[in-house]
């Protein structure tokens, strides 16, 4: 459609480049002039140096592997449980209506609050963190699956019924495909929350991973390492988010219509 | 409408009354769990942190009381279907059944009660904490922190969103930085925030603020940008100036989106609050839970979780109601 | 300039047939004699530049100097001159995409001509003005967050009118558009025809001097459209007003207007100005009406 008075792309690129260089320049400058103590704020050059050093030593890779392993364990468990359960709850509306308040009750407990309990229940180690991450990504996926199943268009169901499809056919050929875009949105939101919970559980209680690296560096007052950790988390999160957005977009475009939700 | 609410309150009072009328026979509960062998549970000991444990209810009475309460609710619903709302019946039933199962699992010794303390023990513990004004302190600390951070997020986020959405030049400069900070999960800021502000309220408020801020800003931007050109033109045509367009067209048309942002932001702030309290402060519900963990005081852990959940539901309901009330035109 | 010369002739013709009420007649005659037009458009041209960026069509008014691609030039209007007098009901008729809506938006002050001048009562048009009220093509232009009353009362509120006067005016307008009993209703509960009536009410409550309508009934079903057309005629007769009406519906133009300006295909130019010498209310089965309609259809076709 038409868009009136769109600004030239080159101009916007120029401005964001200017903003970036100003931001980074000020950051670096503020430390060299002593406005901020180097203990409180590490200059970008030092951060990059430190990052390269860690990469060389393999310290960063170990932590990234620990974090990603933990995260995907929880995330995959959440997906594997939430989607079938969501399908069931979406299909059996009576059951869902009775269970929904209870689910809401549990959904509103922030996952980190369950962490201490999970530690007592499952013991120290990987399992409490995985459990909490799974719990964090579980509810958005579940809720979106239920919604996607509920929003199946009756007319599509009727089309397959007139073709002589049974219940299984309906689920396979209509309900599941039409719910996929909504489910993907749920997965992306679930990723956001799971990622948040991963970092918070690692900061609170872990002996490896990027969050642990941050917390350990704080104890040793190693400011550059904190920034290295934050940058790594930021880059990883961005990469997974872009990837999931691509998939979501693909499904939404295939369905023709639908909407992207941001959170 | 009003009768419905009154009826709901009355039934709630009835259920609660039934539970509390059940004689609180402390020794029965204690003996039940002690006599069957196994380790004596910490939650029964009245010496923790110098606080007394409240009186535990008889588990059998407790379960029967809840079951009777749910049944009465269903009876009321069938007798007066207009007075008792279906949603309340469903909610109370499913939660009641879950609580009974929880109690029963422990009562039948399927799970060791030190790992999963029964609801009666949790209630007793909460009662004890309440009496010693231990619970109130932590609730107040959490709520205060949350409100300050959320308030700051609103008064900075909404105007900033307006500016970014309306002024291309401004947004070209601010967008890259906004995007950079947005992708860092707030808990990752925690060590850094502690380094800067020290242990206490400031770092946790900062984290909570970050959690609430971005959903609010992003939704404000989206809402304002989605304002329909035709509405802006209508306003100009009716003789409105730029300020009228901002306040009478963009604000109301963006309002539902902004409110969604507030609700999402609140959810994330709520997670960040607990995280921050587990690490960076010395009071608050999150701290209470973590402190109880070090003492293996499972009833307090679960009690704290229940309290957090209650407040979550309370705020969520308030948000939903307010949204419905204010955006009636949708 | 032929149009100007014709206007006195036309007025006497209307007078003979006893078509308009007394007040409108005198004002038309007076304005025509003074050569003082409500809206004067002289040699107006309008062109846009169309760029393709990221597979999307971007239409701009200014040429981009740093663009890699050459723009496609789109001339919407070319050398259009038109004078509109007080009390006239003018229809701008043409195939879709001929620039008639652009002309209306220029009159309303949302867009500015690339060439030529537009004047409203002798003054250059510099921006939107409540004196030239616009009724948009889509009923979505009604603010969904305000009630019917709120929507209609917004214009007076913006003009700092006292609350009693405002209430009185709003009540009168609601009566005029026959929406009594729906004062407190939100737009989502109203039908398309009712919404468009709200849009009409919102425009006329300010007592504008010119009412600009941009295909306001295009999206409605035939029955609603007919009743709204009668509505507009009634409003035009009851409060002495100038109306400029954009449409691509030949019958609508012939049914409503007393002057139809026919546009050519893009670039939009005036092909012919047709005076409709029929009295209101008009009958769609009237042979004279059918003659006019066929004449207009022929004009558009060739």
Widest sheet, order of strands of chain C: 7-8-9-4-10-11
Estimated helix fraction of chain A = over 70%
Provide the β-strand percentage band of chain A: under 5%
Structural class of chain A: mainly alpha
Question: Could you please describe the fold and organization of this structure?
Answer:
With 263 residues, chain A is an all-alpha fold. Chain A contains ten helices and one strand, in the order βαααααααααα. Chain A has a single domain (59-255), classed as MetI-like fold, CATH 1.10.3720. In chain A, helix 3 (59-91) packs antiparallel against helix 8. Residues 20-53 of chain B have low confidence and may be disordered. Chain C has a domain at 2-44 and 83-131 and 208-301: Rossmann fold (3-Layer(aba) Sandwich), CATH 3.40.50. In chain C, a hairpin with a 2-residue loop joins strand 1 and strand 2 (56-60). The radius of gyration of chain C is 20 Å and the shape is globular. Chains in contact: A-B, A-C, B-C. Strand 1 of chain A pairs parallel with strand 2 (56-60) of chain C, so a sheet runs across the interface.
Describe the protein's topology:
The complex is a heterotrimer of chains A (263), B (330) and C (302).
Chain A: E1 3-4, H1 9-32, H2 44-57, H3 59-91, H4 93-107, H5 111-122, H6 126-150, H7 154-162, H8 167-204, H9 210-219, H10 223-255
Helix pairs in contact in A: 2-10, 3-6, 3-8, 3-9, 5-6, 6-8, 7-8, 8-9, 8-10, 9-10
Chain B: H1 2-21, H2 26-35, H3 59-79, H4 86-107, H5 119-131, H6 134-166, H7 168-182, H8 190-197, H9 201-225, H10 229-237, H11 242-279, H12 285-294, H13 298-326
Helix pairs in contact in B: 1-3, 3-4, 5-13, 6-7, 6-9, 6-11, 6-12, 8-9, 9-11, 10-11, 11-12, 11-13, 12-13
Chain C: H1 2-17, H2 22-34, E1 39-53, E2 56-60, E3 72-84, E4 89-93, H3 100-108, E5 115-120, E6 123-124, E7 132-135, H4 148-158, H5 163-176, H6 192-204, E8 210-214, H7 222-238, E9 242-247, H8 250-256, E10 259-263, E11 270-275, H9 287-301
Parallel strand pairs in C: 4-9, 4-10, 7-8, 8-9
Antiparallel strand pairs in C: 1-2, 1-3, 1-5, 5-6, 10-11
